[in-house]
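Fold it.
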Amino acid sequence: MPIGVRCAAIADAGDILGIYAPYITDSCISFETEVPLASEFALRVENIIKRYPFFVYETDSKIAGYAYASQHRERSAYRYSADVSVYIAREYQGQGIGKSLYTKLFELLSEHEIYTVFAGISLPNEKSVGLHRSFGFSEVGVFHNAGYKFGRWLDVMWMEKALRIYDTPKSAYLKC
């Protein structure tokens, strides 16, 4: 029974890690080289949902994919930008789940004064590049030989997307 997109909860961390782990162990899509402990991963999820949206797609009484935003950089002037990621369980790829997740994520980010989102994609990864292009992302550049995994150097393409008009944010004026 499909439920669709919903907010992730800390209790979902184990299922989310189950989707993510093969991207670590069997591919160069993630630059992690070891699957994190369940407790460590639950803490990651908890820290993200304190500040950013984190969605899961639930169908067949299980989580089939997830997407989230995270801090782009530490300096305060970057607070109107975010990095985004989406991962889909292999058996559910090609069913529009990534599009559903990203649609919801981008709507919410735009409503909360996130103006620009960035995605770092290890190359080659035609599916991810295609998904991001379908949402209007454009290539910013490629970091060559940015990571080393499975005996080879890997490039990372960075893409960006504007979510809203670049007006003056309501919380733009910070006291020093």
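The helical segments are 13-25, 38-51, 97-111, 126-134.
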